[in-house]
Task: structure prediction
Amino acid sequence: MDDVSEENNRFGDYIPKQCLSETATTRTWLAEQVSVGRIVLIEELKVEAVSEIGRFLADVRAMAAVEHPLVGSIYEACTDNGSCYYAHELLPGETLAERAAAGEMIKPQRFIHILRRAAEANIYHETHGNATSAMGLDAIHLDKHGVIRMKNLVVAGDRGPEDSLRDVVELGAAAEPLLDRDQPGATRCLTLLAWMRGQDLEKPLRWVQVRGYCEQIEQQLATPSEVVAPPTGAIRPEKRNGFVWVVGVLLLAVVGAVLMFPTKPKRIVAMAPKPDFVSVAKGRYITPEGLDASVPDFRISAHEVTIGEYADFLGTLALLDDGKAFDHPEQPAEKSGHAPDGWAKLHQAAKAAGEWNGRQIDIHTPVVGVDWWDAFAYAKSKRAYLPTQEMWLGALMAGVKVPSKIPISDLLPVNVQAADRITNGLLGMAGSVSEWTSEPRPNPANPLGDPVWVILGGSYLKPAKGALSRELVADRMLRKPDLGFRICKDAE
Result:
């Protein structure tokens, strides 16, 4: 569309450069925000559509509440001098719709990554109850570096179950022409797309299932596996009457995997389904050091809280008026938030599956750099709590007779098939990160002194005595690059 001069139609701090599109009620402008010198998009409500101003602003408020790294940001909205508009982020790269129109083909490894990112953004909307307008290929942006961002499609109102079903089916159909079918892994991607459309199933997949399949296929396409297995063997959709069809697909996947993998595969870290909570039965557990761990029936998370899970928690806090809804009543006044030490770099590296402090991490890696107050607030937000020293040790002894024999693990994603998993399913008790517990205990070296706070388990930086490592600290504000936590819930 036509360019405009800087003098025309200035929107406050924003100078329109070009009108990109127009509907019956709105115009979309490419504009420059003068004060910070950045290029943005302006959505303007036409003067003749003034009757729509209430709905327009309600949608803007709903979009502005979204805080997710994959979803475009809303900068500000304004109604003055007879105009109503809002400014939002100009997402980098081209949309998948533009790439499809140009006849571009995407290799399976990148294609499945795009699907996973789309699933993660939509799972966020599901968990936050965000109603959304229909998601098409024009909502997904991909830049030259492979970074994926999603248009903010949130609208005012309550989310209905049809929102997710609509978008899963639509993406399962619309994305298929973009897939390069001549590359290894294409058959697996096509099978997933068919399941998203509900082919040979009672109903299409849910977003959480889509993400689960994507994680499995993405890992298999990224690295050779030492075990040849169907890409979707860990989670199997319900069948209607397509038994023979499903068996055929799985056999094709196995054959494809065999052809793809070299004769002498490299050593890799295999992925596993992300573990959930582990039930611990009421009883008395005695550790090799003689500590008595008498516990009630309870459940403990199989792994430490991850970077991705903690990012969602911070996103929830950002939506609250003061962000203090889950604070402990004794939290010091000088502590104003719950972002971990070095959070920006840690989170950015995790989102990009990149390097942090010399180690490869992703969003499934345990979060670190959190103090006790952070751990308490996160647990409270999940209607859970931190384990006591006795609960943590009881869970340990319920899963292994000789804790000293548990391998010391590095800082690994929690969905890795790690060697330190004990028989009841717990991970990271001897390595990974050390962990906060909920209550202070007497210091054996100073039994008459004040009780101190207990950190249990070895870490990737300080293995010490592995699962039987114990550190006593007086300061609940302590943060370290190898200190995290896990949470507990009452027995079901």
Q: What stands out?
A: The longest strand covers residues 14-22. The first helix runs from residue 53 to 64.
